[in-house]
Amino acid sequence: MTGALAPFDHHRGLLFSVAYQMLGSVADAEDVVQDTWLRWSAADRGEVADARAYLVRIATHLALDRLGSARARRESYVGPWLPEPLLTGTDPVATAPPPADPVAAAEVGEQVSLAVLVVLETLSPAERAVFVLREVFGLPLAEVATTLGRTEPAVRQMAHRAREHVQARRPRFDTDRRAQREVTDRFFAACAGGDVAELLAVLAPDVVLVSDGGGKARAALRPIAGADKVARFVVAVAAQGLELADLRIEVAEVNGGPGIVAWTGGEPLLAMSLVVVDGRIEQVLLVRNPEKLAGLRHTS
C-alpha cells in the first residue's frame, strides 16, 4: 500500500483541481479524490506506465458520472445556483510565479474564477471535461482523447467549440491585481460603513449581483441588477452580519480573484467574489448557503 500512496499523494492536488473544476463543488471533488484512491489502490499498478494520466482518467470519469446527477439536483434548487467558492489565498495582491516546468504547471492549472465556473455550467459534460483538461491544465490532445475515449479529431473539435463558447460568455476583468485590490478594499469599507454613495462610486452602473442561499440562508431569489439596488442590498447584508458575535471578515483571494469572506464563531458565513472591469465592479457573486462554504477551509 505504501507504493500506491506516494504517486497518489504526488498528484492529489491535480486530481482535486480537475474534479472541482468539472463539478464546481468542493465536497463532490473531495469524494472523487477519495473514490480515485480506492480504485488506484485496488488496481494492478504494475501495468500502469503513466500514473498521472491513469489517475486523471479515473478522476475525470468519476466526475462525469457525478455531473449528470448534480445537474438533475439543481433543477429543484431554491434560487440561483452558484459553484462552491474556494479560498485560494489570503492576499489578493501577492502572486507566486508560474512553475517553469510544464509538468509542474499542469499540476497547478489555472485558477478558474467563480464567474468562469458559472459559464462552464453551460457546456455539455464532455465539452466541460475537454475544456478543463485541455485549456485549464494544458494536457496534450492525445492524452485528453485517451482519457475520454474519443478520437483526437473529435476532441480537437470539442475543444474549439468549448473555447469559443467560454470566450463569448466569460466576463472581462482587470488583470492589474493591485487595482483589483484597491477597488475591493473600497467596496469592503463602504459595505462595512453603510456608505451607499461610495458603493455607487465603485459599482458599474449595470452591475449584477447573484446570491445563492439554497433555501438555507437569506438570499435574493433572482439576480439584482443596477448599482443602486445592488448597493442597498449589500449594505443590508453587511448590517445583518455586523450584529453577529465573533464576526471576522477579510478581503481575500477567492478562486484566484478578488473577494470577501466572513466567518462567525469559527464557521464560514459567506463568500463574495467580485469581477472588476476598468476599475469598477461589474459582477458580485455571493454564496451564503452553509453547505457550500467548505471551500473557505480548503486551501489545496
Automatic annotation (TrEMBL):
Domain RNA polymerase sigma-70 region, first and last residues per copy: 8-71
One of the record's GO molecular function terms: DNA binding
Name a biological process GO annotation: DNA-templated transcription initiation
A Pfam family cross-referenced in the UniProt record is: Sigma70_r4_2
- Record carries keyword Transcription: yes
Q: Matching Gene3D superfamilies, A to Z?
A: 1.10.1740.10, 3.10.450.50, Winged helix-like DNA-binding domain superfamily/Winged helix DNA-binding domain
User: Where in this chain does the record put each RNA polymerase sigma factor 70 region 4 type domain?
Assistant: 115-165
Return the InterPro entries for the record: ECF_Sigma-70_Domain (IPR052704), NTF2-like_dom_sf (IPR032710), RNA_pol_sigma-70_dom (IPR014284), RNA_pol_sigma-70_ECF (IPR014303), RNA_pol_sigma70_r2 (IPR007627), RNA_pol_sigma70_r4_t2 (IPR013249), RNA_pol_sigma_r2 (IPR013325), RNA_pol_sigma_r3/r4-like (IPR013324)
Q: Which UniProt keywords apply?
A: Sigma factor, Transcription, Transcription regulation
Quaternary organization: Interacts transiently with the RNA polymerase catalytic core formed by RpoA, RpoB, RpoC and RpoZ (2 alpha, 1 beta, 1 beta' and 1 omega subunit) to form the RNA polymerase holoenzyme that can initiate transcription.
Q: Which family does it belong to?
A: Belongs to the sigma-70 factor family. ECF subfamily.
Question: Would you tell me the protein name for this molecule?
Answer: RNA polymerase sigma-70 factor (ECF subfamily)
- Tell me which species this is from: Blastococcus xanthinilyticus
